[in-house]
Design goal:
With 329 residues, the chain is of the alpha+beta class. It folds into 2 domains: 160 residues, Beta-clip-like (Beta Complex); 127 residues, no CATH class. It contains 10 helices and 12 strands. It has a 4-stranded mixed sheet, with no helix packed on it. Strands 5-11-10 form a 3-stranded antiparallel sheet, with no helix packed on it. A hairpin with a 4-residue loop joins strand 10 and strand 11. The structure holds S-adenosylmethionine. S-adenosylmethionine (SAM) binds next to strand 4, helix 4 and strand 9.
Length: 329
């Protein structure tokens, strides 16, 4: 496999599609106590191992989202029915075999296809799609897999976001994870279960601490959003502020790691990298940017995120080299 090295020990730009590596069958589907069916690892899996790559059996355009209630069920059902009618009978059977949750009133008044779609669909860029294999993955608020939508391949790709042991159940997340336990519980209601993952089943004190961490992370991400530009401070006070922010970015990253929110690692690394660049600490900026780059490449080597981190890392390495040259004069 070819690659273009940026600098020894640092990020390289892959010239082949790394997302296509990995053993063909790494999972099995079997009952998961209290959760219906679940997906389990057949082998030990390394971080980044691809678990599933699946083309949606069909997609629908997203109807307008109604704040508080979500997508209007009737509009969704209608779109789903039209797409379902176009499927071969074997595919229709696969869809009808998927599990779904509904209240008694919904069971009486709603179309089963719409309910199946609500319990199983995932976003596919602008649309929403049904993936019968990926649909067997149960939810956790501290999931061991992550996913992304690869528009070019027309596939949703699920990969291990940490080392996973043979026999472990694989989990992804159905909801945003920067929410308190109470908020997550509410968002999971349409799926008809109470989450018992390590984040939700912890003792009250640990739960409160986790809630505080998740809220702090959400606030810090919002606060840092306006500071993700590469303006180097031009006054004493701005330099002091940049150094304080660089420290705060490390604290933010610490919280993300403590909560094991793997989906946010790369974003946290980018914040740490840019905050250190703004404080003109080019060594730290390069190291953190490179970590972010490695994660983005693992996720999708051709993504805009990977390209962005490649460019940042290259720029920071140049500044770091300049700094070292000047120090040696
Ligand atoms: C997308 S399906 C997942 C696969 C499903 N278990 C099956 O048998 O096909 C979503 C449904 O699985 C169940 N489920 C998912 N995650 C769960 C969890 N952490 N605890 C209990 N049930 C869960 C709920 O019934 C939910 O509506």
């Amino acid at each position: 496999q070819g690659s273009t090295s940026i600098a020894p020990g640092f990020a390289s730009w892959p010239t082949t599609d790394q997302a296509c590596s990995g053993p063909p069958e790494v999972y099995t589907v079997r009952p998961s106590p209290g959760k219906g069916l679940g997906v389990f690892a057949l082998h030990d899996l390394d971080v980044g191992s691809i678990i599933m790559r699946e083309t949606p059996i069909f997609t629908i355009q997203r109807p307008s989202f109604i704040k508080g209630t979500g997508y209007p069920m009737e509009a969704v059902s209608q779109l789903v029915r039209s797409e379902f009618a176009l499927l071969a009978s074997k595919q229709q059977e696969e869809v009808m075999n998927l599990t779904y949750h509904a209240t008694d009133t919904e069971k009486e008044n709603s179309d089963v296809l719409g309910l199946i779609f609500r319990s199983n669909a995932y976003k596919t860029g602008e649309d929403i799609g049904l993936f019968p294999k990926i649909s067997r993955i149960n939810h956790s608020c501290r999931p061991n897999t992550s996913y992304y939508w690869n528009a070019k391949q027309n596939k949703r790709i699920v990969y291990a976001n940490r080392k996973i042991r043979k026999g472990e159940e694989l989990f992804d997340s159905y909801i945003s994870l920067l929410l308190t336990h109470k908020e997550r519980k509410e968002r999971l209601e349409p799926y008809g279960f109470t989450c018992s993952c390590p984040a939700c089943a912890s003792k009250p004190k640990a739960m409160r601490e986790s809630d505080v961490r998740r809220m702090d992370i959400r606030k810090a991400f919002a606060d840092f959003a306006s500071q993700l530009t590469l303006t180097v401070p031009d006054s004493q006070s701005a330099r002091r502020k940049a150094r304080i922010n660089a420290k705060a970015s490390l604290q933010l990253n610490g919280l993300v790691q403590q909560e094991a929110l793997a989906d946010f690692y790369a974003h946290a690394y980018k914040i740490v990298a840019i905050s250190h660049a703004r404080a003109e600490d080019w060594g730290a900026a390069t190291t953190w940017s490179n970590r972010g780059y490695e994660l983005r490449v693992m996720e999708d080597p051709e993504s805009a995120n990977a390209m962005e981190m490649f460019q940042l890392t290259s720029a920071f390495i140049e500044r770091w080299k300049d700094e070292m040259r000047q120090q040696s004069l």
